[in-house]
Structures are given as structure tokens and as C-alpha cells.
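Researcher: Next entry in the queue.
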Amino acid sequence: MNPELRYASGLLLPRGHGSLVNGVQRALSGSVHALALGGGYSVGPSEGRVVYFGRNRPEVHICIGEDDRQVSRRHGELKHWEGRWWLRNTGRRPIRLPRAQWLFADEEAVPLAEGYTPLLVPGSREREHLLEVFVTGTDGAKPVSRHTENTDPAHKYELIGDEKLVLAVLGQRYLLHDPSARPLTWEQVAAQLADLDKVTGWTAKKVAYKVNTVRGRLSSAGVPGLTREEVGEPVGNALNDNLLRELLRSTTLVPKDLEMLE
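Model: Structure for this entry, 262 residues:
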């Protein structure tokens, strides 16, 4: 690393350092810790402070994908601003965040929550390079083990009336664990619903209204990736794909719901 990049309070994390998924030892509140395969960096908060990551080891704090030219020499940065750490993409390839959120180079920086955040940088030949980030909480302590405490239930979203049936039909390929799953078209959903329910009079327009109502409700509740403004054009299947993945992640939809289609 170029000596000019080093901060007095910064600490290099060596190659082979343990994963950050289990937290870090007690550190200054608001510190950021970032780790890739070849090592990492840890530093305390300071307004305007920037931590760089990318392929060019001498010019970044954390080297990631150093043998992969699909990774930019400076692919991104973690910047401390207004009391928080923010992630910005300065590379040519997008950065994948949790919940299938993508951050592109021309987009605004996104804030990082306290705790653990895995970031993935796509590389060549379907490789993905992991950058682990951990932001220390207000008490600066490592998360406490909770071996015997009760498990928190998943946060399920409320579905009203026949919304679950419509969504189960729309997302049946996801519920069948199809690795290349895509949502059915409005017309396909309407045709299958018409076979299951001969009273309602299902049409593609009625299906779209039902699904868009649920999507709007979840978006208002803070779920990302459910509006055209967020995913950009062309939209394609992105909105319904993001919706279905969130419903599965939250266990609002589960494989057992396929029984409604029988």
C-alpha cells in the first residue's frame, strides 16, 4: 500500500485473517473493517475519511481480485460522512449487496448499516470476489453469543384475500427451486388462475393489478428494488423477480404454498 494512503489509526488485516461474519474484537465505535481474500484494513471514523478497494494493491487499502482484470484498479470506496460509512462504486462492474441489490458506478453512494455486510464484485469466468465489511456498533463490542435464546420468527408480510394464490402462481418456478426461475407472464398466470377459480373471471389486467398492489405495499414498507426508478430501464422481469425473492426470503411464500395450485 502506498504510504500516503495509510491512516495513523489504521490497521492492516493480514491474509488469512478470520472472517468478519462473527464480528470483530472491541473497537472504536463507528470503526470500519473490510476484508478480502488477500487481507484487509481497519480504521476508525473521521469525517471525510476514505478507504479504497480494488485490484491495484499499491493504490488501495484493500486489494480484491488482484488477478482478475474484470475488477477495476480502484473499484470502490468506503467513505465516512455525516457520522456513517457509505459505499460508492467507482469501477466498471456493479457491486452486489445483500438482498440482490446492485450498486452501479453512476449511482449515489449507499449507507452501510452497523454490523456485517458482504459485498460481491463480479469477475471473469463467472467468478465473484467477496469483500466483507463490518461496521462497529455504538458500544464497540463484538456481538454477544445467544446460544440458548429463542429464535426470532421471520418477518412475514401480510397478504390479503387471494393475493397469496396469485403470487404462488406467478412465482411457482421459484417455489420449485428452479435455478433459472423467472416469473410467469400476466397471461400465463391468468390462464392458470382461470382453471383453478372459474368464478372470479381472471384476466391479465386483474393479475397485474393484484401483484402491483402487493409490490407497492412492500415498497412503502421500505423493501428496495420494487419501483421502476430503483431498477431503471429496461425493467423487464426485475420488479416481479425482486418481489418474489423478497417474499421467499421472508417466508411469506414457501414451497408448501404450491398445494394451492393442485
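Model: The chain is about 20% helix and 20% strand.
Researcher: Noted, moving on.
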